[in-house]
């Protein structure tokens, strides 16, 4: 089977050949020609035109050709479904659709800049989409321990937060309570309202039903539990100080971290670390 599209591919015209080769026709021939020659060459070569206006395999509404191929050929693969918004976001300049979309665009643009031969570009592109597929299938939940972002957070912490001195003034009860409320919002920076939009569920219903499916915990309690579990993981796998761990897990106030940690585990962070080091 032959497939034909416009020359100088970047996103859709590399992602679609990858999808075709991996899920539709392993020996498909991909042909790149100037835009004005696509339809005439398609007829001459008995090839299927794709990713140009006016043909079957093209963009529909907000979706790109990659989306159409998935639907047309009834591809049932969760990793491919995870890739679709990334490809769509990169191809349509809607990088908000997926956290990886901007990165895919940047890599694809750089690849096209470095390789002027379209067939050579295609072969390199297939490697990129194989890698993206492996990430989507096996590695989505993997975290890169000691990632630069974590180091940057620690840098900011050590430079701007750790050295702050107290004023020595007694904090009024109302101010402390307000501080705790603000801290609670920092800890739960995921918003039920925003999540309800993503899930297309009424926020009031989501708030009411959340605890039924999350171990009888409210949304805030559940998020704090996740942060404490992350802190425990960092204690076991890193040499970060407890103050740094508190910061890295979203507790900008260590006293608040200690209080929540003890509430969750029955031990203070320092006692927990000492106990686990003895094992």
UniProtKB/TrEMBL annotation:
InterPro entries: ChrB_C, Homeodomain-like_sf, HTH_AraC, HTH_AraC-typ_CS, Tscrpt_reg_AraC-type_HTH
Residue stretches making up the HTH araC/xylS-type domain: 176-275
Gene3D superfamilies xrefs: Homeodomain-like (1.10.10.60)
Domain of life: Bacteria
Transcription regulation as UniProt keyword: yes
Keywords (A to Z) from UniProt: DNA-binding, Transcription, Transcription regulation
PANTHER family tied to this protein: ARAC-FAMILY TRANSCRIPTIONAL REGULATOR, HTH-TYPE TRANSCRIPTIONAL REGULATOR EXSA
Protein name: Chromate resistance protein
